[in-house]
Amino acid sequence: MATVYIPPALRDLTGGVETVEATGHTVRAILADLEPRYPGLTARLCTDDVLRPGLMVAVAGSMSKLGLRTPVPENAEVHFLPALGGG
Amino acid sequence: MRQHALVNHRRPKNEDRTLIGLPVAERQGYLQRIRTMATSEKRKYKVIGTRPIRHDGVDKVTGRAQYGADVRLTGMLHGVVLRSPHAHAKIKSIDTSAAAALPGVRAIVTSADFPDQVGRIVELGEGAVNMRHLSANVMAHDKALYKGHAVAAVAADSIHIAEEAAKLIKVDYEPLPPVMEVIGAMRDDAPVLNDDVRMTEMGTVKPDAKASNVAAKFLFTKGDVNAGFAKADIIIEREFRTATVHQGYIEPHNATVLWNADGKVTVWISTQGTFSVRQQTAELVGIPVSDVKVIPMEIGGGFGGKISVYLPPVAAILSRKTGKPVQLLMDRAAVFEATGPTPGSFMRVKVGATRDGKIVAGDAWIAFEAGAFPGSPIAPGCMCVFSCYDIPDARVEGYDVCVNKPRSNAYRAPGSTQVAFAMETVVDEICEKLGVDAAEFRIKNAAKEGTRRVDGPVYNRIGMLETVEAIRDSEHYQSKLTGPNRGRGIATGFWFNAGLKSAVVATVNLDGTVSLIEGSTDIGGSRTGIAMQLAETLGITAEAVKPQVADTDSIGYTDVTGGSRVTFATGIAAVNAAKEIQQQMVERAALLWEVDASTVKYDDGKIIGPASKSFTFAELAAKIHEVGGAIIGHGTSSAAEQGGAFGTHCVDVEVDPDTGKVQILRYTIAQDAGTAIHPSYVEGQMQGGVVQGIGWALNEEYFYDDKGVMRNATFLDYRIPTCYDVPMIETIIVEVPDPAHPYGVRGVGEVPICPPPAAIANAIHAAVGVRMRDLPMSPPKVCAAILQK
Amino acid sequence: MCHWLCQCLGVRSKKDEEHWQSQWHTGNRERHDLLRIMATIRQIQKAPTMSKKRVVSTTINGNATEFLCEPRQTLLEVLRSVLNMTGTKEGCTNGNCGSCTVLLNGRPVTSCLVLAVEADGASVRTIEGVACGSHLDPVQQCFLEGAALQCGICTPGFIMQTEALLEQNGHPTEADVRFHLAGNLCRCTGYDKIVRSVLAAAELKRCEATT
Which are the contacts of C63, defined by CB distance < 8 A and separation ≥ 6? Predict the structure, then answer.
């Protein structure tokens, strides 16, 4: 079971709940698992089957460039965050 | 102490002072001594941690190094960009006929010459960019959105003719009221800059959203912030403002472009990222990326400001129209008025703590000025504000807001310096009210491995605590500061540090040297830092590696030199390339000795076989062609992500109570470098970041008049620190290795700019008892604050 | 001071002229004087009437050099664009960053605020003339050894300014160095390693002089 942190802006979909449990070996599978329970979540995070521009996923504490394909280890945390740049 | 076992404090030793005060007998002896001292420290590695002379050094001290403005091509034309005199205006028409008629004028472009861009979002390696906005920034479409916004460009036989021609271009403007300040721009009745901008939140726009200057909202929460504040014995809530400031690189932007008859475009440019320039240029002129080749010239400073393109697409269209290479160079006023800056900001930070000095809750509200188009570093700002501390309950809300100023760009730890100023000043006030030592308070509340950040993820191994301890234990912090109007302050800062993608290729030469080709443009000596990692892995000297930065046709995709990523990520690529070379060297030795490769091993620059057979690297390199062709190692890095960088600073100031002038008396920086590859250049990054931070703290700001015109677009009036303004900057390199890098490297470039404004504000308070909450803390403001006391 | 320059500066009296003569090529100008000089150079640069070319005879790095230039061209522009000596760098074109520092008759000047025609009969020393053949000058050597450069764009200007300092003062203190180099901007290093390297170069020059 992975723990998915729902960004504050999307908690209207989860009734205000901050973390939800989900199963799946990739971020895509995790979202597929959550969608029936929280309809509309995928559409808010993704567009054209990729993460929306400006979003990034962090799994197990590490920002990933693999988007929906990012592998999710057992019991990992999944966070959806703004993408960052540097100077 | 488990943590201490991993930490090595590299304090400035006498090697740091080798250049002064040595009894020098003669030149050779002198140079010899420097080298010996630099290598006499006991250390884990042979090359890493030494101080070799940088490979590009001789070219740079003799004036031979070729920067972008030094490009000279046969038949080259010179261009000038005409810029808007208004901060906010409709462009009704542009008449170029008089300019075109001037003898020597070869071509003129306006936005009509550029392909239309839909509002497509393109991933440019380090963040997503709206192509319509990028295009409109390069050449204004129907509106000029800031003073200095490009509206047309001329190419002519000489720069003087081009300047004369630009004056002859008639632009009919309808001036609009400028929106110059972030809070005013957020009001419902503020004039709207971009009619296609609506507020997004996590990538989504509300269906009923109107066009607005607020381009994005970010919200982060952790725990229950109200419950957190209920536990607090003391709550401090303060408001802060910071001025728009510029990266201030000494080399203005430049680009020389040839659009050849075969449709292939070559760009010579000083840039932080050749591949990013290639993609931006190709997208903006509407050709495939493979038709653009970007040749990196030496770069005279960037600090984040030389990632976005301004000139290459314009020069490209001028070249297409003329069939000749076109060079565009900005002057300093254009650099200030049209490039760079980092956002001005408004911030409200509230922190609660218990009587025994534990932070229990934090709440921050932050608005950044994005400039003419969306895209300020508000998200990292929000994610950095509480990043140094372990805070159980917190909330951060942030806004990206358009104003009539140049489109803001990355500047050294973008967003983090502003928020560090606010947070670290509030922390200092809590320490004051509670009567606790500022270093001990930070140690008690430090974020460490396992701390959950306010934006969610949990830290891996980081060195926040160690940098504070290094400052607490430093001779500087322990020393007594005496004298009237003098005070000491400390502050801590954080930056994420990026990973991203890098590629290198390394080829073994017959004389035992290795040629190293990399895609990371070198701003501050990174060629040598990468070469040293290759050398360490191969067991050869740094001087035996010959590094070179290659063009986009000659090396694999490499992201920008930014995010403090090059020594980390391109270093990993170099280590991977070295491992491939090791493998091939082993196979060649096996062939030469006629033994099975499994009986040969590579060990510290030697290739060891059965029966005491061995080659040095150079011996084998001389023989590789007897049993095969070139030995080439490739290396890439893409997955590795850095753990984050922290630094803690300590500063002593003296305030002149009559004038408000703040003099820096002494400055010490302790920073976690993971593993310092080339300590001189690590120190250099730390010292340079500190002095930029001092400029931001004390002097630098864009002065705008009521028409939105910048009144100080010269280095005379936009005053960056000179050597007369600052003392020596003492450095303490803390080494908490980053497990994500084979040698433990952490990027060092950005985080040193974050703490100085707060450290200095705290020192000013200690000196004269006033809390400064507006940057810059220039003499008039400090003076006024003292008078109001 | 030539007639048209006096005209551009609005010189009305002998005293005026003496004032501008003293202000024209110095690093220590009053702010209002510098602003006036910046404006004058810009005015001259933008004047099409200043485009008729003249011959200028100079000595550059010890070599007699003649070049053709327009009166509106600065010494910096001529060095870089006519003579292809691009070692002298352009950072601001208004005398505020010091990147374009060269020695004019031994005095450090920002070559962006010197008109090329003013170099007629003068000797000019640039970064290209600092090393002696393939031997680096002690200043260059110490900048290298001391890691006194990062991006390197300001380095030629700093080296020229340092040459001028060490010519005048062989035993500079840290304060002397910081005062003398205050007209040269560096955005990368924080100046620490530059100042140390200049002090080291002074020492190296002294010991070279005694051997």
Answer: none
Residue type at position B624: I
| CB-CB neighbours of B295 under 10 Å | 19
Output the pLDDT for position B467: 98
Collect all residues with Cβ–Cβ distance below 8 Å to B771 and sequence separation of at least 6.
B238, B425, B429, B761, B765, B785
pLDDT tens, residue by residue, B394-421:
999 999 999 999 999 999 999 999 999 9
Region C105-125: what's the mean pLDDT?
Answer: 96
Q: Is B210 on the interface with C (CB under 8 A)?
A: no
Residues of chain B whose pLDDT is less than 70? 1-43, 125-126
**DSSP assignments along B60-129, one per residue:** HHTT-S-BGGG---TT-EEEEEEE-SSSSEEEEEEE-HHHHHSTTEEEEE-GGGSPP--S-EEE-SSSEE
B207 touches chain A (CB under 8 A): no
ipTM over 0.90: yes
**What was the pLDDT predicted at B3?**
36
Q: Can you give the pLDDT at residue B702?
A: 98
Contact of chains B and A by CB distance (3 or more pairs under 8 angstroms): yes
Sheet hosting strand B254-259, strand order edge to edge: B105-109, B150-156, B77-83, B326-329, B254-259, B265-269, B292-296
Say if CB C161 and CB C125 are below 8 A apart: no
- Calculate the average pLDDT of chain C: 91
Q: Does B668 lie at the interface with C, CB-CB under 8 angstroms?
A: no
* Chain B residues with beta carbon closer than 8 angstroms to that of C84: 72
Chain C residue whose CA is closest to B164: C46
In the three-class reduction of DSSP (H, G, I as helix; E, B as strand; rest coil), residue B324 is classed as: coil
Dmax (CA) of chain B: 87
Mean pLDDT of C107-112: 96
Which subunits sit against C, judged by 3+ Cβ pairs under 8 A? Answer: B
- For residue B128, list its beta bridge partners: B123
Contact B456, A81 (CB under 8 A): yes
Query: How distant is the Cα of B134 from the closest Cα of chain A, in angstroms?
Result: 15
Kindly tell me if the per-residue pLDDT of C9 is higher than 80: no
Tokens representing B420 are 């560090």
Residue of A nearest to B306 (CA): A87
Distance CA B165, CA B159 (A): 10
Q: In angstroms, what separates the C-alpha of B515 from chain C's closest C-alpha? A: 22
SS3 B9: strand
Taking Cα atoms as reference points, which of B657, B778, B707 lies closest to residue B87?
B707
Distance between CA B559 and CA B537 in Å, rounded?
Answer: 23
From CA B591, how far away is CA B339, in angstroms rounded? 57
Q: What is the pLDDT of residue B126?
A: 65
User: What is the predicted pLDDT for the residue at B41?
Assistant: 47
> Long-range contacts for B13-19 (Cβ within 8 Å, ≥24 apart)?
B13/B41, B15/B40, B15/B41, B15/B51, B16/B683, B17/C196, B18/C200, B19/C142, B19/C145, B19/C146, B19/C196, B19/C197, B19/C199, B19/C200
pLDDT at residue B39, rounded to an integer: 42
* Cβ–Cβ contact B680 with C under 8 A: yes
Contact: chain C with chain B (3+ CB pairs below 8 Å): yes
Q: For residue A82, give the chain B residue with the closest CA.
A: B379
Question: What tokens does B634 get?
Answer: 């490739």
For an interface test with A, which of B202, B206, B307 has the most A Cβ atoms less than 10 Å from its Cβ? B202
| Range 716-745 of B in CB contact (< 8 A) with C | 716, 720-724, 726, 728-729
By three-state DSSP, how is residue B245 classified? Answer: strand
Q: With contact defined as beta carbons under 8 Å apart, do B248 and C187 qualify? A: yes
Flag whether the pTM goes above 0.90. Answer: yes
Q: Provide, as residue numbers in chain B, all residues whose Cβ is less than 8 Å from the Cβ of C49.
A: none
* Cα distances (angstroms) measured from residue A73 to each of A58, B207, B638: 12, 36, 19
